[in-house]
What does this fold into?
Amino acid sequence: MRAFTGLFVSEGTSDLPLADLVESLFIDRGVPVRLSKPDFAPLGGVAKDVKSRLEAGRRLLHDSVDLLVVHRDSDNAGYETRRSEIERAVDSLGVLSSLVPVIPIRMTEAWLLLDEMAIREVAGNPRGRQDLKLPKNHEVERVADPKKLLQQCLLVAADSSGRRHERTAKRFSHHRRQLLARLDRLGPVSELSSWKRLVADIDSVVQGWT
It folds into this structure.
């Protein structure tokens, strides 16, 4: 089977490991996909809405792709609102590419609260015993501010003070990206509603291609 081409558009650079996860999910189904993750910096001033980023990505690639993968946190708007937003943006482009939305509830950080050991390792204190007060797996999608909670958990896990504490706080984006790269697609995240929707969309695309 030929390798399918795709464009990945995310909310920020620390979300880029999501592209690797999506590629892995396709490979699990016997379908190779290579997602381009364009750097919008050369274009200057690309707006952050989905349509603008998709248009910019297509300009940078200079070619059509088989698949569009769009990451957007549901935030307070909710899953269905975000999905409609993404679908409208794609429809307005008039392309024939398949679509896979990646929409964590409420934020991507909710997915990263599922692995206590990974949090401790990324925080630089894998043998720590501090209570991180992590939510149960079935509760993470109901956490009001997963980003704030993850920041707090990393600081508690680091168990540091003074300048080291400050450095840990400032490296949140880097730590977040590390955690996302370590996310086990077959682990607890696979039981979350938002992940199941992602997998269902991938299955639908694969069915249409094969």
The radius of gyration is 18 Å. The first strand starts at residue 4 and ends at 9. The longest helix spans residues 193-209. The chain has a mean pLDDT of 94.
